[in-house]
Amino acid sequence: MLSTQFKRHFYKNFIIKTPCKNSPSLFLLFLIFIIVNYTAYSQQTKEKSSENIKVKLNNTLIIPLKDTLALKQKDSLVIKPKDSIAKPKELLESIIVHSADSLIRQDMKNKKIMLYDNAHVNYNDIDLTAGFIEIDNNSNIITAKGVKDSIGSYSQRPIFKQGSQESTQDTIKYNFKTEKAKIWGLKTEQQGIIIRGEVSKKHNDSVIFIENIKLTSSEKEKPDYYIDIKRAKFIKDKKLVAGTSQLVIADVPTPIVMPFAYVPLTKGRTSGVLMPTWGENNRQGYFLQNGGYYFVVNDNFDLALLGDIYTNGSWGMRAESGYAKRYRFSGNFNFKYENIINSLKGFEDYSKSTNYNIRWSHSQDTKASPNSRFSASVNLGSSKYFRESINEYNTNAFLNNNLSSSVSYYKKFIGTPFNMSLSFTHSQNTNTEEIAMALPSLQVNMDRIYPFTGKGGVKKNAIQKTGLSYALKGDNRIKTTDEFFFKKEMFNDAKSGIQQDISLNTNMKALKFFTLSPSVSYKEVWYFDRLNKTYDTENKIIVTDTVKGFNAFREYSGALSLATTFYGMFNFKKGNIEAIRHVVRPSISYSYRPDFSFYNEKVQKIADPNDSNDYLEYSPFANGIFGSPGSGISNSLNFALNNNLEAKLRKKDSTEKEARKIILLNNLNFNTSYNIAADSLKWSPVSVNAGTKIFKDKLSLNLRGTLDPYAIDANGKKFNTFNINNGGSLFRLTNAGVTMNYSLSSKDGDKKKTAEEKNAQDNSSDGIFGEELNITNKQIDNKESDKNKVKETKLYQSKIPWTLQLAYSLNYSNNRREQEISSNSLMFSGDIELTPKWNVGVSSGYDIKNQGFTYTQLRFSRDLDSWKLNFNWVPFGERQTYYFFIGVKSSMLSDLKYDKRQVPDRRLF
Predict the structure, then answer these.
(1) Helix (H/G/I), strand (E/B), else coil: 776
(2) More exposed terminus of the chain, fewer Cβ within 10 Å: N or C?
(3) Residue 276: other Cβ atoms inside 10 A
(4) 269 vs 594, residue with greater confidence
(5) Secondary structure string (H, E, C) spanning 105-133
(6) What is the SS3 assignment for 337-384?
């Protein structure tokens, strides 16, 4: 009987799979195997030596015998170096699993196994496939290489996978015990960088030494470009350190040679230097722009510090940061500052200026807190920043004359109908340099409650439907200019106040088809100062002072509205249109507010105090942020008429489940009012608004107009006579406007746009005004979806993709019979893909009134596979400039580029 220790030794060291279960020689071989193994085991026990060998071979029978006379020189591949990262020693080694499609040859004498055609070996975390694989159990070395097919081409190259790493090579020798390898014709990819090596030595699982390297991002067999490196050390997921390197383009060596190279290959973000862009302009001389350092502070926060320097002494700095915390919040912050010197001292055009811009965007995840929310959208700075900056080419920001900001916090109080909002707002006109801010603005609102509801919240009658709502708003408002922005002087004229509103309303059915809605409102306003006017008898002028102290006024009003909705159907027996539905929503409302002029005060305005006409009436709340009490009775009727037209189309065939509906007229609205308390000009002008979408919603058309029923005199002043009674028409058109937006695309006939694509197009701020000329560090946007996209063209009857956007605007003014077209312009933007790799675009417009072209931008783009070429040109105007860029698409080699831009020469404008 065999001992238990022997059994354990037997199963511990060998796993045997035999191909022939019923072979007569199996039993004899099995006995020989037991005798030899038992003898070896006894000898190992006596010598107290332990060596565990564990090999699992498919369809193989191996008897390991040691030749004590064989003295072999130690191969460097056998010596296993110490890894920098110590691994815990496993009790059992992994097993080898192998297979092949064509032939598995076993050399019992030399202890080798040869696998032919789609050979596959799996060992531990290593997976190897090749046309031919040889397993040598004497040296523990696996040799893999490709095979030549019938036409002589080399195929089935070895593919070596270890963990997440994968490489392709011509030949590989791998020692599965020491984990060292020697590789010929290596090809591997690390973070988008393709590394091709002639001869490589794998020192351990993380370090490889490579000779004659081609470093590129081109996936072609003959790459468009590569960096030729003689020797390098590659450290997995960390870096590649190399000696002398030379840039080769289209197999032509360039004079660009570096004495050494360092390529970071770390996963994710890493800190590092941002290479600057060089150039020159005729105002600041030579410059370096956008150079600096990128800091990865932690997984949630990063920071980039960039700077510009010019030979005439100008300089600029920027701080760009992004932050995010999963399921909590995300945002980014940008600060830009420029100290600009134009020309040189001693010249007439010498000048100095400083400009800055601050942008902050913050959004909170909806999962973070359902009852509170913090958000920020900040865009503030010098009014001249986007016009004078020498390193900012944001087209939309330049054409827009308004900067606005908002930082807000919202809180919902659970269990109560109350919610609170605290915000800081900012609005800045870059033309007038006027700035208005609310620091802060507090709002407390109470959701509508129904205090008179029946049991279970039932609201059947008007009393039960009565709703009560409350709102409080407190503001501290500041008006200043660029000169005093962020200085203590801007707080000198700050104004504050609190307004409270309470409203009570209900609704009821009247005459079966009408809805009657009465409402009552109460307003109370608190101010902390007031105006006090006195007459200076010595200088004979009125002196206005601001007196500090608590002051308040109160107002109340009432309203009653009556509304209904009715429909009209027009059926058609023939044609594509089955029916047209007309929806009409008329409404009439009455509002009343008493006279609150008793809050007003009087002041003497001339020297005679006995003269009854010697007094000026004024409101002490005239400068209040929420206005002053209303003077005179407000007693008016308001009229509104809203229309909508829809058409129902017949079914084309039986496959359509239901008839299709289209909108003929989205809206046609009329509004006016009648002031009963006024002594003249009681009717207000009629405002008309209409809008629709036609041509399958491609053309959006909007019309507006104002119709005045009263006539005007020779001086253009309106008097209390209807225009029709003065020999004119029923209404006098005082102003009108038309806007049209039309979008066309070559893909319109191929497929319908998704809701996301349509929404992105409708809300896109680019295109019609041209694209933004980004700084070079952000020029390339690598999208994985486009990276592997293969474009095909047909020589004949080819489809050339194109897009076109049109925007037309016309405004008419006739307040004083001037009959003037105040503005009339057409803007357009389009792109055409001449070939799958050539794209041309233009954005421009024409001012029909002033007969001149508006801001114009020409765009040229060329896809050079692993490279990209861009040329943007603004041929004329204040922003006349150009920008040329050619560079590698890969973000890892983004500094391998050439770009050139011309700074606009603003002296000409």
Answers:
(1) helix
(2) N
(3) 19
(4) 594
(5) EEECCCCEEEEEEEEEEEECCEEEEEEEE
(6) EEEEEECCCCCCCCEEEEEEEEEEEEEECCCCCCCEEEEEEEEEECCC
